Amino acid sequence: MDPDGLMRIIESLNVAVLVEDEHRRVVLANGAFVELFSLGIRPERLRGAAAGASGSPLARLYLDAGDVERRTEAAIRHARPLRGEEIPLIDGRVLERDFVPVMLDGSHLGFLWIFRDITAQAQIRRGLEERARMLAELSALKTEFIGVISHELRTPLASINTFAPLLEDGTALSGDERTAATVAIRRNADRMQALVADLILLAKLESRELAIDDDPIDVPALVRDAVAALRGGTAGAPDTRSVELRLELPDGPRLTGDAALLSQLVETAVGVLVAGSAAGAEVVVRAQPLDTRWRLTVETSAADAATTERLLSTRLPHPDADGESRTAALAVMLARAIAARHGGELSIQAGQPGATVMVDLPIRG
């Protein structure tokens, strides 16, 4: 077929088409190609132009021109057809590219490229992938939640179930024993009441029903106060005297957030690793102001810190109920929800040995 006839066929297609010769010079391009890349010229003016990413006007449109060129060279080198290769553009669009090696004039090798704008499909796919990720995360959180709450309820319920029948039998206990049983039931009822309050707080944080204050937060001061609270020897607090605490707290911009909740978040991030650290271990608390956020990192070289078993067996003092405590696992769940409510996140990486708690909080104006 003569080039003009081929051009008419290519021009009639509603997909962007580019044909290169063996030297990667443009042989044919259609109007859809010119329009897709907003070149502003007639297709025939592209003939003979260099099509390689380094010399092509398309290079300025690719989000990563170097990556596109590497993939292009690999496709040409292997001379195998490709289908559905995605290319993100700097303006946010996503293109899909097909490649087919062809023979030009029956002897010279050429390259056929077909481009389609799949931005809408890519957005839908990314939305579905994000939804699938969130559902998987929610499923994991549900499993974690059930495990943590079951663990929290087991001890107080067992205690109440032990002492209540004895109180029903008026002859089973002496006066002092009845008083001790009553105190135990009351203590465990208070513990369950604090647990219910935590569950309500967690639900309100995750549903965004809880309104949070917009306090100006000095992050280094927040961290120092949290460490001071741990060092203050509050009943049930982890013993900071058994570890070496090192603080790295440079100055930086203030955060905007709820001071009480963020204080609870920081105390949990530090306390959970202090409580899980071996005697003599170094715990490093570092706050870094980054471009758009503050990053709090708490690191320890202690073995087995922040494992699931350790979080369930370790207790931290309750910030709103004197004398009460909660498992580190529940404290971490609440801390994650507090971070998320402020637009940030909390993660824990358990190493062998050691562990790291990382909190990112956005700097909001």
From TrEMBL:
Domain of life of the source: Bacteria
Keyword line: Kinase, Transferase, Two-component regulatory system
Main localization category: membrane
InterPro entries assigned to the protein according to its UniProt record, in alphabetical order: HATPase_C_sf, His_kinase_dom, HisK_dim/P_dom, HisK_dim/P_sf, PAS-like_dom_sf, PAS_4, Sensor_HK_Regulatory
Residues passing through the membrane, by range: none
Name assigned to this protein: histidine kinase
Domain Histidine kinase: residue ranges: 148-365
PROSITE patterns recorded: HIS_KIN (PS50109)
Reactions accelerated catalytically: ATP + protein L-histidine = ADP + protein N-phospho-L-histidine
PANTHER family given in the database record: HISTIDINE KINASE 1 (PTHR43711:SF1), TWO-COMPONENT HISTIDINE KINASE (PTHR43711)
Annotated EC: 2.7.13.3
Cellular compartments annotated: Cell membrane
Species of provenance: Planosporangium thailandense
